[in-house]
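Weekly sync, protein design subgroup
Attendees: M.S., D.O., the rotation student, P.L. (late)

Item 1: inverse folding check
M.S. brought a backbone from last month's batch and wanted to see whether the design step gives back something sensible before we order anything. D.O. pointed out we never logged the input encoding, so this time it goes straight into the notes. Structure tokens as presented (84 positions):
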């Protein structure tokens, strides 16, 4: 089993299958770094305009709500895969 497949399987287990498999397959390290860039209030902060499309992808995947706060699925993903 390759690293990507292990990542997908682990993410699915961590999230309790809250997200469809096709969405989990879109998760990458850039998305994890974006979600991890927040402070105690849970609001995701964009470092530059280049992250806007990545942020929109996170919203579409249900990892961040429309106001910019991490959802429970987003928090679970960051807790599991953020290595910072």
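Designed sequence read out in the meeting:
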């Amino acid at each position: 089993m390759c690293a990507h497949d292990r990542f997908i399987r682990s993410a699915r287990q961590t999230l309790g299958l809250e997200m469809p498999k096709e969405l989990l397959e879109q998760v990458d390290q850039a998305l994890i770094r974006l979600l991890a860039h927040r402070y105690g209030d849970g609001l995701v902060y964009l470092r530059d305009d280049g992250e806007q499309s990545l942020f929109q992808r996170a919203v579409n995947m249900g990892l961040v709500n429309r106001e910019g706060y991490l959802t429970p699925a987003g928090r679970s993903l960051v807790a599991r895969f953020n290595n910072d």
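Discussion: The mean pLDDT is 78. The helical segments are 3-14, 21-24, 29-36, 52-60, 72-81.
Action: P.L. to compare against the previous round before Friday.
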